[in-house]
């Protein structure tokens, strides 16, 4: 079932998948633990993991430091993995899935027990995402171990940095759907300067309020409406009457503030007519990427430095171009990708001018997009930036557990 770990019991498979399959071919050998297929995608001429599963996980990494005590990191809520680390070793679990169902939670807890038993290591502390409502965070609070919280995007950045321990100073672009930020808002379009344990937020995107909150992830029309309402534009491509929703949005009822680039991709997919309702997470951005055709000149997106020192890119000039029905959908999709790549380059140039040299990292679920990522790498290279992508750990939330361990060790150094 979508988002859940694979089923391993014959009777449960027949019962829960009765509406999916017409027949079942069973085996009489029991399956002890579930293992999803591994998924890789070639980006910038190298295969990169999107999901660690059968044949690749549990996945072991050597740590560039020695831990004082065994540490369990329970990851995030979506695409969950857990990691167990001790001495100079870290073991990352296979893909578990989204922790929104009883089955997922059962496999999550089974995996935690399995890792500790298989490696004969008992965790003496536990790390979780700072979001208080994640199922993994609730588990961590109940575990009875010393608890350490890590902000979502700090974990993303640290997971990447952990693959390149020789790099001392980073500018990491952490672009994804949404994650709990240090200011209590939903981040997702951040640039973090520094190193594990000492990240400084230096750039982001113009924030907007998501009508319906979490529903926006499966209903891209909500993100499209949010951008249009923020910019004072009218769009009638939504499938429902939104008068009541608009009233709630104006009063900021269930309309959290977000800077997420992933939601910008959702909005672009809806505004171009490609996708307004998703049957799985990321469907809109995937279809938008697949629609890209030809070349385009980037739309210049204003970049302003606020009093708090954070550079902020304004996405609003994109909206009229995305809504232009006289322009082919493929051309609008290409224009959107090129414009965001150019916006990232401009942020990097301004931050280098203000803060000096660094290595650039690209991580977060948005950089599963090959078109965007390769456009970004091309432009950064043209301006003498050294950019790195994850090589062994997924850039999406499957890498959060790894990043939690790297980030916490950085804070103790």
Description:
By secondary structure, the chain is of the alpha/beta class. It is built from 12 helices and 17 strands. It has helices spanning 10-16, 102-118, 135-142, 152-163, 220-231, 243-250, 261-271, 283-291, 318-322, 329-355, 370-382, 400-412; strands at 39-43, 46-51, 59-62, 71-73, 83-86, 89-92, 125-129, 147-150, 170-180, 186-195, 198-205, 208-209, 257-258, 303-305, 311-313, 359-363, 387-388. The chain has a 7-stranded mixed β-sheet with strand order 14-15-11-10-9-16-17, sandwiched between helices. A 6-stranded mixed β-sheet has the order 3-6-5-4-7-8, with helices on both faces. The protein has a two-stranded antiparallel ribbon with strand order 1-2. β9 and β10 form a beta hairpin. α4 (152-163) crosses α12. It starts with 9 loop residues before the first helix and ends with a helix.
The overall pLDDT, averaged over residues, is 95
The ordered string of helix (H) and strand (E) elements is HEEEEEEHEHEHEEEEHHEHHEEHHEHEH
Principal-axes shape call: globular
Kindly report how far apart the N and C termini lie.
43 Å
Contiguous uncertain segments of 5+ residues: none
Structural class, from helix and strand content? alpha/beta
Instruction: Determine the strand fraction and express it as a percent band.
Output: 15-25%
Secondary structure: helix percent: 25-40%
Q: Figure out the total of helices.
A: 12
Rg:
21 Å
Major sheet: order of its strands? 14-15-11-10-9-16-17
The multimeric state of the shown protein is single chain
The tally of beta strands, per DSSP, is: 17
Main sheet: strands, sense, barrel: 7 strands, mixed
């Amino acid at each position: 079932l979508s988002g859940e770990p694979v089923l391993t019991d014959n009777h449960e498979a027949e019962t829960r998948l009765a509406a999916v399959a017409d027949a079942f071919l069973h085996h009489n050998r029991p399956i002890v633990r579930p293992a999803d297929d591994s998924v890789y995608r070639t980006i910038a001429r190298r295969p990169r993991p999107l999901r660690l599963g059968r044949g690749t996980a549990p996945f072991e990494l050597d740590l560039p430091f020695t831990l004082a005590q065994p540490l369990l990191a329970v990851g995030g809520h979506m695409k969950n993995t857990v990691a167990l680390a001790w001495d100079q070793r870290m073991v990352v679990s296979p893909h578990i899935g989204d922790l929104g169902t009883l089955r997922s939670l059962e496999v999550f807890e089974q995996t935690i027990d399995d890792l500790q038993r298989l490696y004969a290591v008992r965790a003496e502390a536990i790390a979780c995402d700072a979001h208080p409502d994640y199922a993994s965070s609730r588990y961590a609070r109940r575990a009875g171990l010393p608890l350490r919280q890590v902000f979502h995007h700090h974990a993303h950045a640290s997971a990447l940095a952990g693959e390149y321990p020789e790099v001392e100073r980073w500018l990491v672009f952490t672009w994804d759907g949404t994650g709990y930020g240090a200011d209590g808002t939903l981040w997702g379009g951040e640039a973090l300067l520094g190193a594990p344990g000492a990240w400084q937020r230096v750039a982001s995107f113009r924030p907007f309020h998501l009508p319906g909150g979490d529903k926006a992830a499966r209903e891209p029309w909500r993100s499209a409406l949010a951008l249009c309402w923020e910019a004072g534009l009218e769009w009638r491509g939504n499938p429902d009457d939104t008068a009541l929703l608009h009233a709630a949005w104006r009063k900021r009822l269930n309309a959290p503030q977000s800077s997420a680039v992933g939601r910008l991709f959702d909005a672009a997919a809806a505004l171009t007519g490609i996708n307004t309702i998703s049957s799985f997470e990321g469907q809109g951005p995937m279809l938008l990427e697949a629609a890209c055709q030809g070349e385009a000149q980037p739309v210049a997106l204003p970049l302003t430095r606020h009093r708090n020192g954070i550079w902020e890119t304004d996405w609003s000039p994109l909206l009229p171009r995305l809504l232009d029905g006289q322009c082919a959908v493929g051309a609008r999709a290409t224009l959107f990708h090129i414009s965001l790549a150019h916006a990232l380059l401009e942020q990097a140039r301004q931050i280098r001018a203000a803060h000096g040299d660094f290595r650039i990292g690209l991580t977060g679920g948005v950089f599963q997009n090959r078109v965007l990522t390769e456009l970004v790498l091309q432009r950064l290279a043209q301006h003498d930036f050294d950019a790195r992508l994850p090589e062994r750990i997924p850039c999406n939330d499957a890498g959060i557990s790894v990043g939690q361990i790297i980030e916490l060790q950085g804070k103790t150094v």
